[in-house]
Amino acid sequence: MIKVGIVGATGYAGQQLYYILNNHKNVEVKYISAHSSVGVCISELYGNYSNIIQQKCIGMEGAIEKLDEIDVVFLALPHGTAFDLVEKAYKKGVKVIDLGADYRIDDAKSYETWYNVEHKNPELIEEAVYGLCEINRDKIKDSSIIANPGCYTTASILAMYPLIKHGIVDEKKVIIDAASGTSGAGRSGKIDNLFCEVNENYKAYGVTNHRHTPEIEQELTKACGSEVLISFTPHLVPMNRGILATCYGFLKKDVTHEEIKAIYEEEYGNERFIRLLDTFPQTRWVRGTNLCDISFKIDERTGRIVVISAIDNLVKGAAGQAVQNMNIIFGLDEAEGIDNLAMAP
Amino acid sequence: MIKVGIVGATGYAGQQLYYILNNHKNVEVKYISAHSSVGVCISELYGNYSNIIQQKCIGMEGAIEKLDEIDVVFLALPHGTAFDLVEKAYKKGVKVIDLGADYRIDDAKSYETWYNVEHKNPELIEEAVYGLCEINRDKIKDSSIIANPGCYTTASILAMYPLIKHGIVDEKKVIIDAASGTSGAGRSGKIDNLFCEVNENYKAYGVTNHRHTPEIEQELTKACGSEVLISFTPHLVPMNRGILATCYGFLKKDVTHEEIKAIYEEEYGNERFIRLLDTFPQTRWVRGTNLCDISFKIDERTGRIVVISAIDNLVKGAAGQAVQNMNIIFGLDEAEGIDNLAMAP
Amino acid sequence: MIKVGIVGATGYAGQQLYYILNNHKNVEVKYISAHSSVGVCISELYGNYSNIIQQKCIGMEGAIEKLDEIDVVFLALPHGTAFDLVEKAYKKGVKVIDLGADYRIDDAKSYETWYNVEHKNPELIEEAVYGLCEINRDKIKDSSIIANPGCYTTASILAMYPLIKHGIVDEKKVIIDAASGTSGAGRSGKIDNLFCEVNENYKAYGVTNHRHTPEIEQELTKACGSEVLISFTPHLVPMNRGILATCYGFLKKDVTHEEIKAIYEEEYGNERFIRLLDTFPQTRWVRGTNLCDISFKIDERTGRIVVISAIDNLVKGAAGQAVQNMNIIFGLDEAEGIDNLAMAP
Amino acid sequence: MIKVGIVGATGYAGQQLYYILNNHKNVEVKYISAHSSVGVCISELYGNYSNIIQQKCIGMEGAIEKLDEIDVVFLALPHGTAFDLVEKAYKKGVKVIDLGADYRIDDAKSYETWYNVEHKNPELIEEAVYGLCEINRDKIKDSSIIANPGCYTTASILAMYPLIKHGIVDEKKVIIDAASGTSGAGRSGKIDNLFCEVNENYKAYGVTNHRHTPEIEQELTKACGSEVLISFTPHLVPMNRGILATCYGFLKKDVTHEEIKAIYEEEYGNERFIRLLDTFPQTRWVRGTNLCDISFKIDERTGRIVVISAIDNLVKGAAGQAVQNMNIIFGLDEAEGIDNLAMAP
């Protein structure tokens, strides 16, 4: 059994992680930590566990103390709050899978600019592997620190990676228009996230300056070797879960549907969590799953291509991919614990 | 492997059944039938199965022809449409689990009055067992035909059964006020069920004459031996899934919280799918599960008791309970295939 | 022009009031107050006013200072927070219309028990008139302080008042099962009211002890002269607005539909804001309006009657009724400013 | 009083029109027509009118017969179903305001290609004026036939018109990513529009081939004199009303925020229904109104600009703009009957 700790277990991503890990046959959750709920039983916060699971939350201090008891620690925290823990875990040889942003940006300065916080151990960024499993699988196997990708990032990169890598679209003119369910905004008591503020509304936010922008550009730039420039606009949808990314590329040359199809098949044909569809993705068909549905359409009239991807922001966009990373690191079946399909409606 | 057929597989209850049975380790789904989608692949209707499950629908005729290939047939059809199939299955020794209403009412005349249709094989009603597992488990084991309870019925009976059976409340003055998610209205193209008609709305329907009324009264009457009279009012909630039943009883005598608690524990203390809670049930905590959450509160001021139960209308209220019945009949672990908890949010 | 001040203008009820009063041709809103947004322009909080209305919030102190400039002050505050203001307004002869609970309960002790706060000026309770317009219109005309009824209260009393007053149902056995949209929970940053916590969920709360209970009993008791006992259970619906009250009465004697219809016509036949329907009310048809839709059904089988009423919790259940009260007090057309119908969908 | 007829009065756009016109002080609605509800009272379909408005629907034949009794006929019908009526109205001098698509596309052949139906009176296309009020106001005054713009079209053109007209962005590289509430899908009983299919889902549709594409390109092309090429992708949001268009342009040269602001002010500074905002538009702030909220942000990093607009698809995107057109034609205050703000929440 792999022994794990979850730090930040009571937010939406953290509890999704707890949910998955509790059903993972090779895992034992040794502790869960949540600074605002120390001593509170998880079932008091999440009634789905009532009468069945009674694990209590500990604090950050306890989480650090108990590093010796675990093989891997998952972090589902706001950025900039776990530098110390990561360093201690790393030194003890405890694998770190960080669902936050602290180790995603290769350049510490850029991180500090976008996230407006000082990076306390920039030397560990080099140790970290960007945990987008389908693209970095080999590096992940031997990693000590996983920078688990952001939700929008996962949907966006997976959609555009084949086109960028194969030089199909102008990498200087990519546009990604995406929308997310409200769980992406987290589980804190902000007026903006109240039911009455979100329901019957649709809005953009973070226009031109959302923090997932540099992450997407960084990874797509690696794919093609030339600086990629994207416009990224996230929107908030009155639903709990799901991300849809609608991506636009300007074709560098004439290509056929079959040629593009072949490229996606080449990159993703063997991937268990990517479904290349002939219809357009809908968030409901991947809800609660680790799947990423992708399809595309060439617009010959305008010389462009539209690629659409759908994921569950809490699963493939957070906790599910974190477990997928763990499975890779520990040599398990990559789909262990995350092999379910969506339940409808 | 138990070989099963599903007739009416593309409605919301039918596809929930298909979803569960596809994940049931002791089951092979030999065929699915849907009169309006003959030849259509289930993944064209439910994109959650895309690229993964390719089973095609057959018609009612085919479903009858293939009875020889299966051990049990599940029916998820409108009432009055499967008399012929049930008769043929019964004669061939194929177990029948009917999610519809045709065999729930003991008295054929009463059925015909409430459902406004002629019963074609009333002699089979006697053969049928009312499949409320927690109450009729022993009879279910040896049954050939299971009349799987209605969704409101399951929530209502489970809530009030202990109080009625133990003579705690006046059986002539029961009131059950319940509310359901919209999947309970089925998957047909009615204007009343359009998003814009249901969203941002709350309404009662079937006031004093909903068809689940005689079913609830019949089973509660059996529990206490005296005719039970209920007022039952269902409501429609703008959400996909879930039923909450708020039940009111007039106490026949002074009782304490502990006494009532003991009665519920006596009846349900060993039930895996009933959770007796100290907080009030919410539909989200049982969503997607076969659980029934129950709690109660005595109102000393008025001499009454309020009991609240929550289920997922498509699972414990339909497909999940059908599978629970199958598990009982075939001697499997009763929770096989339906042992999951709710995913939040 | 009637000069008004609104204290607590940025909560959901307060802003509804502001919306209505801004469109009221006989009213000038002299000031709005909100302790957490002093100096903030209302359009920064409510973007519907952007570029059009620029009024800034003042604080409680300012609201008291400026009492001399207004004819009537509306309070949309939590209970127990405006005793001082009310007293000062009363002494200055400024009419008070209080959307909160402080002057609704005739007995100060009972108030203190249910609301868990000391009443600072119980002598003013006697001065206050319970502002349920259809029932207390005459008293309202000459009142100085209006205790504007609660939202659930309005729907519940209007539904049952004719039956109770005319001795049709057993006043000791009334049951009221009601449900509300989420704006009823207010506009504060509580986790329980986040979109992801409310959406796809339905729950009861305040079971047997909701604070609207004594208010309903008090007013219905006045109607029949004998103590009325109700069970009242509110529920939370994933929608923004609306209350539906499903009320159950045990008939004292045989009555016909026509007899009951006549009683409702007698009580409400001339009321502009009550619509007696032949179909069952739905919250959407009164959304954004000051209407109360009511219909009933006798259940001869069980000797009971079900009455269902629907209102908009923020309008007839709060701000609209407050304006209706103001219109009565100032001798205006009772429907001035609140004469719109619902917009669908 | 202007005497009007509404043909197609029971769909979502038609009833919105009816709602507005019933409150318009210069209008008398002489008849409403709806082929599937002949003889049915509007309040049976829309309970908001219960007990208050009793107008009955007539059929298409009656609508044509009664042309002599009206000054203007509004059409809220599917495309291709009212050629005959339009011709007869035109000949009789009855003004036509068509909310459908039949007279929007200048080139009949193009219409026939995109809409897959034969145009029966292409000679009338020339008579028709494209009724985007803010841009074509002068022509509208003297028109006989108004081709009222589509919902997505209105939001898209208003957002991009100033930039295209002033040559700020590359007209060959425009991308418009938009999302709509579900009322845009109409009020017919399609499974795709059921609550359970739309709720908790987000999807794109009509990718690269939505019928509003040629309409947007046509009008923007007129604005700059050079062919405009857009990629347009609509999405479906689980809400009733609202459209948000997120538009991307590649800047032809360096411009400052102030320069762009000045251009928008120049074009729209005096428009009563356009609000130029400093924050980003949200659909809720224009819900139920004829307003179009617009704001923009220059992305210097990528040399692009993002413009976001929000409207209510049924009001400014359909019925409200139709009334605005009528007001212009008949020389009324342009905001008569459509001068309300959004009600929140």
From TrEMBL, chains A, B, C, D:
Coiled coil regions in record: none
UniProt-listed Enzyme Commission number(s): 1.2.1.38
SMART domains attached to this UniProt entry: Semialdhyde_dh (SM00859)
Pathway this chain belongs to: Amino-acid biosynthesis; L-arginine biosynthesis; N(2)-acetyl-L-ornithine from L-glutamate: step 3/4
Cellular localization per UniProt: Cytoplasm
rRNA-binding among keywords: no
One of the GO biological process terms: L-arginine biosynthetic process
PROSITE patterns from the UniProt entry: ARGC
Active site residues according to the UniProt entry: 151
Catalytic activity: N-acetyl-L-glutamate 5-semialdehyde + phosphate + NADP(+) = N-acetyl-L-glutamyl 5-phosphate + NADPH + H(+)
Pfam families for this protein: Semialdhyde_dh (PF01118), Semialdhyde_dhC_1 (PF22698)
Keyword tags: Amino-acid biosynthesis, Arginine biosynthesis, Cytoplasm, NADP, Oxidoreductase
InterPro entries cross-referenced by the UniProt entry: AGPR (IPR050085), AGPR_AS (IPR023013), AGPR_dimerisation_dom (IPR058924), AGPR_type-1 (IPR000706), NAD(P)-bd_dom_sf (IPR036291), Semialdehyde_DH_NAD-bd (IPR000534)
Molecular function terms from GO: N-acetyl-gamma-glutamyl-phosphate reductase activity; NAD binding; NADP+ binding
Annotated function: Catalyzes the NADPH-dependent reduction of N-acetyl-5-glutamyl phosphate to yield N-acetyl-L-glutamate 5-semialdehyde.
Family recorded in the similarity comment: Belongs to the NAGSA dehydrogenase family. Type 1 subfamily.
UniProt-recorded name of the protein: N-acetyl-gamma-glutamyl-phosphate reductase
Species, as recorded: Clostridium cylindrosporum DSM 605
